[in-house]
Design a protein that fits this description.
The chain is of the alpha/beta class and 318 residues long. Among the domains are: 59-216, Leucine-rich repeat, LRR (right-handed beta-alpha superhelix); 273-306. 24% of the residues lie in helices and 11% in strands. The protein has helices at residues 34-53, 200-203, 225-234, 275-317; strands at residues 63-65, 68-70, 89-91, 113-115, 137-139, 147-148, 161-163, 172-173, 186-188, 210-212, 218-219, 239-240, 247-249. The strands form 3 sheets. It has a 9-stranded mixed sheet, with no helix packed on it. The protein has a two-stranded parallel ribbon with strand order 6-8. β1 (63-65) and β2 (68-70) form a beta hairpin. Pfam families: LRR_8, LRRNT. Residues 57-89 form the LRRNT domain. Interacts with KCNMA1. The chain crosses the membrane at residues 278-301.
């Protein structure tokens, strides 16, 4: 087949192809019968390809052992292009990586642990974990992530631990960011820039055991009440860093521990006006407007009288 016309797929770099064997093998010089030569060479080639498929080649500046690839603390500005196919534990921590290319994890079906902490990541490409169905532990702490979109963990249903802590620019978590992560047990959102977290983002996590949210500038207004109620109901089996979570606003609760707020704190959020209240407000407004008109009328009359009196006084003096 002509290689120039061969289709190039997105997974082409993931696959190894055995060379085609024809009659030329039987023409090689060999001290034994031709069919034995063909058999032995074929076995050697197959063993070499299997050896390559097992992923024993290791990227430059990385160490590889027992399906663990360690590329940490190497001052890398980009991810290594080729990894062993059977990688289970990949550490890219403590580098200067600013971006991960789309489809980077497509070929590594065995990946269980991915450590990307302490890099310069601002975002991750959509669908990065589409094929990482066995990924269980993900560390994205100490980066520059600004938001967690809805499709960030798409198809990564095996995740058990996610660390998003110490992302100081993290302002928003999409309500469906963790959708489908029914096995998630540990979620760390501490020391970011979160002022608000939607209850919807956590409601779909039935297995959640540990939730870290301290160190964020929480605004403890009316929108915070649903989340606090949910946390109180789960506090027995969901450990939270209650001592570190504090309110940064509004001013009347600034510095107060998040979990010290009670239903009384949100009493004003539930005040509703009845028809009588609206009628009373309308009546008071009407009375105030009439009083204002009457006052202005009296002031006008008084000013006019003072002007006439002053003018009469001047004429008498003349």
């Amino acid at each position: 087949m002509d290689t120039a016309s061969a289709p190039v797929g997105s997974l082409q770099h993931c696959c190894c192809q055995l060379p085609e064997m024809g009659d030329t093998w039987s023409q090689l010089p060999w001290p034994g019968p031709p069919h034995l030569a063909v058999l032995l060479v074929s076995l050697l080639l197959a063993a070499g390809v299997m050896h390559s498929d097992a992923g024993t080649s290791c990227p430059v500046l990385c160490t590889c052992h027992n399906q663990v690839v360690d590329c940490s603390s190497q001052r890398l500005f980009s991810v290594p292009p080729d990894l062993p196919m059977d990688t289970r534990n990949l550490s890219l921590a403590h580098n200067r990586i600013a971006a991960v290319p789309p489809g980077y994890l497509t070929c590594y079906m065995e990946l269980r642990v991915l450590d990307l902490r302490n890099n310069s990541l601002m975002e991750l490409p959509p669908g990065l974990f589409l094929h990482a169905k066995r990924l269980a532990h993900l560390d994205l702490s100490y980066n520059n992530l600004s938001h967690v979109p809805a499709d960030m963990f798409q198809e990564a249903h095996g995740l058990v631990h996610i660390d998003l802590s110490h992302n100081p620019w993290l302002r928003r978590v999409h309500p469906q960011a963790f959708q489908g992560l029914v096995q998630l047990r540990d979620l760390d959102l501490s020391y970011g820039g979160l002022a608000f977290l939607s209850l919807e983002a956590l409601e779909g996590l039935p297995g959640l055991v540990t939730l870290q949210i301290g160190g964020n500038p929480w605004v403890c207004g009316c929108t915070m009440e649903p989340l606090l109620k949910w946390l109180r109901n789960r506090i027995q089996r969901c450990t939270a860093d209650s001592q570190l979570a504090e309110c940064r606003g509004p001013p009347e609760v600034e510095g107060a521990p998040l979990f010290s707020l009670t239903e009384e704190s949100f009493k004003a959020c539930h005040l509703t006006l009845t028809l009588d209240d609206y009628l009373f407000i309308a009546f008071v407004g009407f009375v105030v407007s009439i009083a204002s008109v009457a006052t202005n009328f009296l002031l006008g009359i008084t000013a006019n009288c003072c002007h006439r009196w002053s003018k009469a006084s001047e004429e008498e003096e003349i």
